[in-house]
Amino acid sequence: MVISKKPLHFIIAAFVACLPLFSFANNLVDSTAVPAQTPHVAQAQVHGHEAEDANLTEEQKADLERKAHIKHHLMDSHDFTLFTYGKDGENHFGFPLPVILFDNGLHVFSSAKFEHGEGVAESNGNYYKINHHDGLVYRTDAEGAFTEDTQGHVTNVKPLDLSITKSILMIMIVAGIMFFLFRGLGKSYQKNGLIATGAGRFFEPIILYIRDDIAIPNIGEKHYKKYMSFLLTIFFFIWFLNMFGLTPLGVNITGNLAITASLALVTYLITTFTAKKDYWGHIFWMPGVPVPMKFILAPIELLGTIIKPFSLMIRLYANMVAGHIVLMSLIALMYTFNSPIGSPLSFFLAFVLSLLEILVALLQAYIFTMLAALYFGAAVEEHHHEHEAHH
Nearest Cα to 336, choosing from 30, 69, 16? Predict the structure, then answer.
């Protein structure tokens, strides 16, 4: 019996597009950042005062709870909760992660001590608890009390936190996937006479596209090879992380400003330390303009070298966070409408947005790689000035 591949492709595409719609199964409140709560607790986290609950209607409380769910779903956590179950989501299915703190010495313990944000962890005589508002670990007393200033900021001592959080774990997983995937691709080239086999057959055209349509046109035949390893790594790293962010695992790594800032910083350092003399000459002493203008343009051009990686950071961060917020807001509308018309409409809009997010996940990786190649190309470009042409 012959089965057409077109229906199969459609089913697979529909399944992938629906994956983000099941993200609420992954503990709406993002495990340790906010444990399973009643509407009163969620509302208190938004406003900071439980007393305000009495002045709100049940509908307002539910709305504030959904906002708290969306906010904390975007936060990192100290354990990996796959989903929750039970009447109020009091049962968690997942696994704890190691907590590593520096606070007058090294403190290492399991995040299970935090009891999904409800418990106080004791280590070498010190007590630590996760603050529900920001998801950070603070030193407290044995009761887990937080002190705040007049502006509502926590004044407890905050230790240096080097824990293996959910985001860090996913970064390690993606790094492992990339290592074994492309290591296997490299070995298949050696064994089969430069012919890719297995999963490498899917990724080979993408690698060639990055080389032929991004690296060579923007950097040049002479210098592109020394940047290829970074361009390939950054493209697949961002793409894989973006795709994991669309799964029910509930990870939002590229929507973390620290992650995008790190990627942009590495790009900036590579551009700075591999730049040729002409690159700096055009920044500090631009040729072909009057001398007084050179003093004006120099600080502007120098500032531009910093603005470029800053734009890389903000572009990736803002696009991914905005996509997650809009998608989760549409899903939340299903519960808000709770009607045979509004709920299916919200589901349809969320499904369409999920398809768009799959495209955005790839597009953001492409844009970051393309702009990085442009910056590298400008850094190694060899300028031939007009006065040199006369010789």
Answer: 69
List CB contacts of 124: < 8 A, sequence separation 6 or more. Answer: 105, 107
Residue 330 near residue 349 (C-beta atoms within 8 A): yes
Per-residue pLDDT reduced to its tens digit, 111-170:
888 887 788 999 888 999 988 877 889 999 888 888 888 888 888 889 999 999 888 999
User: Token digits for 146?
Assistant: 């937080």
CB neighbours of 368 closer than 8 A, spacing ≥ 6?
234, 235, 238, 263, 312, 315, 316
Angle at 303 between CA 300 and CA 304, to 5 degrees: 85
137: nearest Cα among 97, 172, 186: 97
Find, among 303, 228, 236, 312, the residue nearest to 267 by Cα.
312
List all residues 6 or more positions away from 4 whose beta carbon is below 8 Å from its beta carbon: none
Q: What is the pLDDT of residues 8-23, one digit of tens each?
A: 444 444 544 444 444 4
Domain boundaries, the chain: 17-163, 167-384
Residue showing tokens 């009057």:
290
Residue type, position 285, single letter: W
Burial of 347 (0-12, 13-18, 19+ CB in 10 A): middle
